[in-house]
Amino acid sequence: MSANNPSGSISPPPGSRRIRFSPEVSQTLTPEPNRHYHSSASSSDDSCDVKTALLPQPTGNWRPRRRRSGRSWQANAGLITALVALSVLFGVIIWENEGSDPLTDDSELLVTGKHGVVSSDVDVCSQIGVDTMKKGGNAVDAAIATAACIGTVNMFASGVGGGGFMVVRMADGMSKSFNFREAAPASATRDMYHKDANLARAGGLAVAIPGEVHGFATAHRMFGKLPWKEVWEPSIKLNSEGFRVTPTLESIMLKEEKFFYENRKDWSFLFSESTGNLAAAGDIMKRPEYAQTLTKIARRRRLCRPRMALRQNQTSTLYHTVVSDTVNTNFLGTEVITCPPPCSGAVMLEGLNIAEGLPMDDPSAPASHHYLVEVMKWLSAGRTELGDPFDSVVSDNALRIAELNTKEYAEAVRANISSEQTYRGKHYNPAYEPNDPKGTSHLSVIDTHGNAVALTTTVNLYWGAKLHDPVTGVVLNSEMDDFSIPGRSNAYNLEPSVYNYIQPFKRPLSSTSPTVIVDHNGEARMVIGGSGGSRIVTGVFEAIIKKLVWGYSALDTIRSPRLHHQLIPEVVYAEEGVREEVLAELEKRGHTVDRKKKGEAAGGSVLQGVWRDAERGVVEGVADWWRKGGKARGY
After folding, report:
1. Which residues pair with 456 in a beta bridge?
2. Name one GO biological process term (predicted).
3. How far apart are CA 515 and CA 346, in angstroms?
4. Is 0.70 surpassed by the pTM of this model?
């Protein structure tokens, strides 16, 4: 897959056809084993009564294909049918961008607020989050409102057809992780993509069960202040009135220009009514179908569970959000809080534990950046052992995962790090081949009370599975591509991770690392997270090192060029702007350096950060304008 085209230019497979589903589905809950803190609600009111929608007839160069031997397409139709039905239960949000004056100074991107700040990929969405707090909402309300907006403007990377993770740290000290990651359908099997891996990337078989709306509802039910309806109202209004297309959206559309013109009927909302061409930056885009769906969601104060009848005539089960304790470590006198597997926060903590004892305090010292990269290689190796604890194979490895986060393990790793050279990949003991998930969207929030939220959402590949339902406006995810496919070793003879094999209802491994850092006074000091696939965990790790170890300002923490190493391939990716003497010292120590442009499209991470300055009594926020055009807002 090209780094410049995260979607890989994969079209939905032949045979994708118009699918009709029945909205009359049983709601018998089949609990999943090994889950804890399951959200629940009265079964009589939990469903959203949204009527039938159709998966549109493909156009352009899509062609039906011959029925395969073994499982037929009709046998899979129930799976796809239910997934489309699920998406109809969810609203999709749109935004409005009135534009802003051109930036004359990067310092304009450092936003300061006396009460609270929201940092996100989209300026107007950050403002919606701030407006939500001004109305009396807290950080959880603001995060949901902001994400609702982002799911529309950046529908190519996130939205209610996907899922994600949220870390909430309340001012009273309570912290919780919300796992609303997409789940494999009931009819999914370990070897379902063995013959054709592209089926996991586009079309109906690529779609995992979306969890975003249920995750938002669960978090709101536990911690939200504003009525559920008020959180969605800004997006409903913007949905009806339209929004201005951003340069980021325009550029991402152009990457798939040929696909959209060939499938224009299915993606008509992307085209300008006046020109007939794909919408350009500044054009107005309206999405009335979203408004209708969002209105139905906003009217439901109780949890709205997706209904998952995944085979024809099969008793349905209900999706649930996994609410659990966060995973934490102490780092330089602070407490670092993040989400447990299947998110990658655990290995980010591993990296911090390793770095804490290394002589890398001086960013101008040649060895400091070498140590930074070496820790990235170790945490990437640890990531090959992560997976969804729902799988008994993963839960049997729980002691090993716990070991990765200990100070004793970090000390043992440091004994295997040289200041003068790097090593080949096997030195770092990867258990399996690392997986390489794709782009996402992240936002960070601190409110006036000191509550903090780090929220990361995704539909996986750009434009998800390249399936858009024009009746509901949902862009469906391609999260099945985040699972590992057995029997396909890589160039280093590493097998795909057994911990990330497909299993019904299992959730695939994610690179997301939403993080909250608490100071010695028990106050949220820093909220950080990012998008960019496998670059997320290294990007978050590097940002924490820059801020807490190297003493970077909030602005420089986000805008400064980044390094990335994911162990395999054995290459250091360096963004433009990294000093040549730093790169020369890395090469001197045996690293292979590949110079890259900045940004997610070039294969880099995109970070959104918020910091509380206790001495000044203000909150600061910086969004990654340099890589994705975002901007923070405060009040």
Report:
1. 165, 442
2. glutathione catabolic process
3. 11
4. yes
Residue 564 sits at φ, ψ, to 5 deg, of -150, 135
Tokens of 578: 């990294």
Contact 148, 443 (CB under 8 A): no
What is the rounded CA–CA span in Å between residue 143 and residue 211? 16
Determine contact, residues 89/50, Cβ cutoff 8 Å: yes
Which residues fall in the annotated binding site for L-glutamate?
181, 458-460, 482, 510-511, 533
Q: Reply yes or no: is the peptide bond before residue 234 cis, omega within 30 of 0.
A: no
The rounded distance, in Å, linking the Cα atoms of 123 and 125 is 5
Give the amino acid at 632: A
440 as an active site residue: the answer is yes
**C-alpha distance from residue 315 to each of 307, 464, 624 (Å):** 10, 28, 45
C-beta of residue 384 within 8 angstroms of C-beta of residue 500: no
Give 478-519 pLDDT, tens digit per residue.
999 999 988 765 444 557 889 999 999 999 999 999 999 999
Sorted by sequence, the CB contacts under 8 Å of residue 508 that are 6+ apart come out as: 181, 182, 184, 208, 342, 388, 435, 437, 479, 480, 482, 483, 500
Q: Per residue in 277-294, pLDDT tens?
A: 999 999 999 888 877 887
Which residues, 6 or more positions from 105, have their beta carbon under 8 angstroms from its beta carbon? none
Contacts of 292 (CB under 8 A, 6+ apart): none
* CA atoms of 334 and 19, how far apart (whole Å): 52
Between strands 441-446 and 452-458, the pairing is antiparallel
- Residue of 293, 422, 440, 512 with catalytic role: 440
Q: What angle do CA 244, 249, 250 make, to 5 degrees?
A: 85
Strand 524-531 and strand 606-613: pairing? antiparallel
